């Protein structure tokens, strides 16, 4: 047992129970994340990455019942045993999460400044005035120049990159022990991706948080994470330090993921043929 | 957004004019001769002819329409055949009873529907959800007058707690007024509430599936905080539109419930006017009902644009 672990997951198995059928989506997953370090969880869609995160946090998808076995210790909390108020408090104080789709993960009817600080509103630990001050401060820290007026905007009035900066600000609010990025850059333009990842990195340095970065992009994980686990069909197929995984992948699936990253020095691939004009009409 | 109100207002006006034009055709469409109904079968043809002339029934529909519209604009909605009093005065005297019934029943409908819809959406397929689904289906399947008859039988006849029918104005005797209102308000409120539950539950389920609901849960929202602070608002557009329609339609008169409970509102006025072929009165109540529908449609649009900032940009 890693005594300096911020997150310790042991033999985690998650089964989706639906209409009397059972489907195992996460199977026997064990890993630990040392305090202050970052871990990338890589795999194609359907590999069980999102279900793994949901199982760790204990947030079931609506209308679905999950049976989760094993153990999850997050910042000292036994997450599978916590219920009600204790579990909500553990989530609010120990976890900051950045979601995949920056538009859809912001509530369209709530001003962004209020969403940024909603953790405090739910916990009831700060007055409206304090929350508003804290929100403006945080918006400045994630690069909004006129934070005071921008905090009163609605999500649809911001650009994709701005929205994701709101998401990062919200995740950093309580300076949580663990930041979780669930495909935080997938929905963004390539140019915005890098800036968002840099901001995430800066934020992590500022708050001293550990990071769990879920991505289907092995390249992103290699660049930003100390360690990597590769998932397929709900199981871990490869785990190790980033350099080991990238330089000496053990599993054929990891090698195929590596091969799918386009490289400047790689063999030149043939361009797909364009249909002849008129052939489509 | 400001500009868009002009065509909206124009369309509303057009609707009211078309409704007026159609009701002016009623004289030709309704079976039976109003003069015959008013004077009885012992009248002579000459007497009936004279009456038709004073009532303007011998003119063609277009002339009657022009006269009617002219009157509407100047506040003269005509004179009731049946009572001999001005139509507008008769209508306005019936508004308080209908308005009280409708507003109270909307309050009951929403007070019941919103919590049930939100909490059953949070636990789809759970005990509460299944109970609520069955209950609303039952209420929707059974006509409101059947529900009314059952409540009368139970609360008024068997238990004797409440009067079965009748009406006392609030200013005359507040307690008596309330006791007369309980059963009709329940009857109407439950029927409306069943529709609201289904509409809001559907939108709330959709909102709860969204990433922003997931985000709020991870940020430590309790179920009530999640539902009331974060899910209700983005889910309520459909509900608001429905409330607008129900209010508009019901304020024009709730025919069944007013008849069943003998409440002297616009619905009863409509039914009795139809019975005696009181054409000016029929035209008046129809135009009044159309006006309430149009006005509450606009109010609902305004409410939606206030509650959902996206709608101002046509994003919803």
Automatic annotation (TrEMBL), chain A:
Its main location: membrane. Keywords: ATP-binding, Cell inner membrane, Cell membrane, Membrane, Nucleotide-binding, Translocase, Transport. One of its GO terms (molecular function) is ATP hydrolysis activity. The keyword ATP-binding applies. One of its GO terms (biological process) is peptide transport. SUPFAM superfamilies: P-loop containing nucleoside triphosphate hydrolases (SSF52540). It is found in: Cell membrane. Gene3D superfamilies: P-loop containing nucleotide triphosphate hydrolases. One of its GO terms (cellular component) is plasma membrane. SMART domains: AAA. Residues 7-258 form the ABC transporter domain. The keyword Cell cycle does not apply. It is a peripheral membrane protein. It comes from the Bacteria. Belongs to the ABC transporter superfamily. This is ABC-type dipeptide/oligopeptide/nickel transport system, ATPase component.
Automatic annotation (TrEMBL), chain B:
The keyword Cell membrane applies. The keyword Coiled coil does not apply. InterPro entries: BPD_transp_1_N (IPR045621), MetI-like (IPR000515), MetI-like_sf (IPR035906). Its main location: membrane. One of its GO terms (biological process) is transmembrane transport. Keywords: Cell membrane, Membrane, Transmembrane, Transmembrane helix, Transport. The chain crosses the membrane at residues 101-118, 138-161, 181-200, 239-261, 281-304. It is found in: Cell membrane. One of its GO terms (cellular component) is plasma membrane. Residues 95-304 form the ABC transmembrane type-1 domain. It is a multi-pass membrane protein. Pfam families: BPD_transp_1, BPD_transp_1_N. It comes from the Bacteria. Belongs to the binding-protein-dependent transport system permease family. This is Peptide/nickel transport system permease protein.
């Amino acid at each position: 047992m890693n005594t300096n672990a911020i997150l310790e997951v042991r033999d985690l198995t998650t089964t989706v129970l639906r209409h009397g059928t059972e489907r195992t989506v996460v199977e026997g997953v064990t890993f630990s994340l040392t305090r202050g370090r970052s871990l990338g969880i890589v795999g194609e869609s359907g590999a069980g990455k999102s279900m793994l995160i949901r199982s760790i946090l204990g947030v079931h998808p609506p209308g679905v019942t999950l049976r989760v076995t094993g153990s999850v210790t997050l910042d000292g909390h036994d997450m599978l045993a916590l219920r009600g108020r204790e579990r909500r408090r553990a989530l609010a104080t120990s976890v900051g999460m950045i979601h995949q789709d920056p538009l859809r993960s912001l509530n369209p009817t709530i001003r962004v400044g209020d969403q940024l600080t909603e953790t405090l509103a739910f916990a009831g630990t700060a007055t409206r005035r304090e929350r508003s001050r804290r929100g403006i401060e945080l918006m400045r820290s994630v690069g909004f120049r006129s934070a005071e007026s921008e905090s009163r905007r609605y999500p649809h009035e911001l650009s994709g990159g701005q929205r994701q900066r709101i998401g990062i600000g919200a995740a950093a609010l309580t300076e949580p022990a663990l930041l979780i990025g669930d495909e935080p850059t997938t929905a963004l333009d390539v140019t915005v991706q890098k800036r968002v990842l840099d901001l995430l990195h800066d934020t992590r340095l500022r708050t001293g948080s550990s990071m769990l970065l879920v991505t289907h992009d092995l390249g992103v994980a290699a660049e930003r994470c100390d360690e990597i686990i590769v998932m397929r069909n709900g199981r871990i197929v490869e785990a190790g330090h980033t350099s080991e995984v990238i330089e000496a992948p053990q599993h054929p699936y990891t090698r195929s993921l590596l091969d799918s990253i386009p490289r400047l020095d790689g063999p030149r691939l043939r361009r797909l043929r364009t249909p002849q004009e008129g052939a489509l009409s | 957004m400001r500009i868009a109100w002009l065509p909206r207002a124009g369309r509303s006006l057009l609707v009211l004019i078309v409704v007026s034009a159609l009701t002016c055709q009623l004289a030709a469409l309704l079976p039976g001769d109003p003069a015959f109904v008013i004077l009885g079968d012992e009248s002579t043809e000459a007497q009936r002819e004279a009456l038709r002339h004073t009532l303007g029934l011998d003119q063609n529909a277009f002339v009657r329409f022009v006269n009617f519209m002219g009157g509407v604009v100047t506040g003269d909605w005509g004179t009731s055949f049946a009572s001999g009093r001005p139509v507008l005065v008769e209508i306005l005297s019936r508004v308080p009873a209908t308005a009280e019934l409708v507003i109270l029943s909307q309050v009951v409908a929403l007070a019941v529907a919103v919590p049930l819809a939100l909490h059953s959406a949070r636990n789809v397929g759970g005990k509460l959800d299944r109970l609520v689904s069955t209950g609303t289906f039952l209420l929707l399947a059974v006509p409101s007058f059947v529900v009314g008859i059952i409540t009368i039988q139970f609360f008024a006849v068997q238990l004797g707690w409440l009067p079965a029918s009748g009406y006392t104005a609030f200013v005359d005797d507040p307690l008596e007024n309330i006791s007369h209102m309980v059963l009709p308000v329940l009857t109407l409120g439950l029927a409306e509430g069943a529709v609201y539950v289904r509409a809001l539950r559907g939108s709330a389920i959709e909102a709860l599936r969204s990433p922003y609901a997931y985000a709020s849960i991870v940020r430590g929202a309790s179920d009530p905080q999640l539902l009331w602070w974060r899910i209700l608002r983005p889910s309520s557009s459909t509900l608001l539109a429905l409330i607008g329609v129900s209010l508009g339609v019901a304020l024009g008169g709730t025919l069944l419930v007013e008849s069943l409970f003998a409440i002297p509102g616009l619905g009863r006025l409509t039914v009795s006017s139809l019975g005696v072929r009181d054409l000016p009165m029929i035209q008046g109540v129809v135009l009044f009902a159309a006006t309430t529908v149009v006005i509450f449609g606009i109010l609902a649009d305004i409410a939606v644009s206030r509650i959902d900032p996206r709608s101002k940009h046509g994003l919803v």
